[in-house]
Amino acid sequence: MDADQLLQRFTRCLVHNMSNPLAAILGCGQLLERMLQDGEPVDAGQCRAYVSMILSETEKCARALERLALLARPPELRPIPTDLHELIQRALDAFEVPDGISFALEREAWDPTVIADPELTCHVLVNLLQNAAEAMPEGGTITVRTENCHEGEKWVRLVVADEGPGIAPDLLPRITDPFFTTRQRHNGIGLTLCAQFISRQNGRLRIENGSPTGVRAIVVLPQED
């Protein structure tokens, strides 16, 4: 992807993320202004509803800008020996589980200690859990599995698998490209950040279709020699 294409995608992403929230904020602000100018008694409940909407939409803008900022200026890494099993539990505790979603935890790694930044890696895990849940709007099971692997060096492999419909094979090579997404109301930044965070920790992130269905997100992180 050249610089012009990246700029075009960035612009579309920014417009996509800002347009609807800003329209809602403007609309609520105009309604509040009209209520206050009429000289009639103000409905406190309606005012609170408009203010709540303004705050909610402002938070959406802030989250979108925060993600764009992370993409433009990645945070400093602080890799330390980290128990991946504890990190998985931390991510599960932070994740707001949608109705109908359950988990199958398979802690097969006999040595789960990896060299990783706990904060950034937890961010990755929550994002992968969110993607897996969104792939199953009717509900299903997310399988989270760890295992030790030796590919010349010592690694721990983490797999997050869903039971959704999977991804079209021709789209898989682009799935971590900046601003590329297969879902409405998504900005195509989440998996890009995940891949970036894992790569900067000397790890790897691979997205593949499961068998017979679903998607498997595979994270491989290094261990101490």
Please tell me what the overall shape is: elongated
Strand line-up of the largest beta sheet: 2-4-5-7-6
Low-confidence stretches: none
Number of distinct helices: 5
If you had to describe this structure to a student in words, what would you say it looks like?
By secondary structure, the chain is an alpha+beta fold. It folds into two domains: 70 residues, Helix Hairpins; 143 residues, 2-Layer Sandwich (Heat Shock Protein 90). 45% of the residues lie in helices and 21% in strands. It contains five helices and seven strands. The protein has a five-stranded mixed beta sheet. Strands 1-3 form a two-stranded antiparallel ribbon. Helix 1 runs antiparallel to helix 2, helix 3 packs across helix 4 and helix 4 runs antiparallel to helix 5. It is elongated and about 75 Å long.
